[in-house]
Design a protein that fits this description.
The chain is α/β, with parallel strands linked by helices. It has a single domain, classed as P-loop containing nucleotide triphosphate hydrolases (Rossmann fold). Helices cover 32% and strands 29% of the residues. The protein contains 7 helices and 10 strands. The strands form 2 sheets. The protein has a 6-stranded mixed sheet with strand order 6-7-8-3-9-10, sandwiched between helices. Strands 2-1-4-5 form a 4-stranded antiparallel sheet, covered by helices on one side. Strand 9 and strand 10 form a beta hairpin. Helix 4 crosses helix 5 and helix 5 packs parallel to helix 6. It binds adenosine-5'-triphosphate and magnesium ion.
Amino acid sequence: MVNDLQIELRNVSRTYRMGNSLVRALREVDLQVKKGEHISIIGPSGSGKTTLLNIIGALDRPDSGRVIVEDTDITDLGESGRSRIRLEKFGFIFQQFYLIPSLTAFQNVMLPMKESRVFSRNARKRTRELLETVGISHRAHHLPSQLSGGEQQMVAIARALANDPPIILADEPTGELDSENSRRILDIMKGLNRDMGKTLVVVTHDPEVSRRAKRSIRMADGRISK
Ligand SMILES: Nc1ncnc2c1ncn2[C@@H]1O[C@H](COP(=O)(O)OP(=O)(O)OP(=O)(O)O)[C@@H](O)[C@H]1O
Ligand SMILES: [Mg+2]
């Protein structure tokens, strides 16, 4: 990587078509994120925060502009290339957790592991370690419905770490949680950045979450406002 630059958006635009009308969700956005940064993205509802995060994480693609992740230009990659990038480069944390309801905490964390396609002792060991990292080992065999919201988010964080990705993308990770659980989740995320060296990009409405980031980016009407 040149100059530690890990994520780069160049002149990125994304327009949604709704019948006859156009929604310009992102307008010519430029963004550079260095390896190991902890940044927050704030801004009013509808300003394009989720769209931006989805484009960074190869969940969506821009109409124009370039997206570069660790020296790979992912803009024109096909579906299999994008899915490989998602698996190797990104861990995702969402407001709604999105755990699979029929699987235990343990199984949810192990599911995305590349090794888990074959029965693997390694994958089990790593799953145990990850549950420990987020402090949820004692709930390993609970189903999501048997966990509190805070606990579900801890499991989701462990799952995001399954393949040891260098970048964690979080969209309103504390949006569903009370203040005590939010604080716990923020502490865990802080540790991912400080102790594990993960780059952290966090979309949030919460000023407390934003304050914890070293850099805060404000979005308004599809643009990064300076
Ligand atoms: N799939 C879609 N189809 C059409 N319009 C969309 C779609 N997704 C988002 N939009 C529109 O694009 C704009 C940006 O949406 P986005 O979800 O990025 O906002 P946001 O900043 O994440 O908002 P919030 O804080 O409410 O989550 C909004 O006007 C939204 O209505
Ligand atoms: Mg959003």
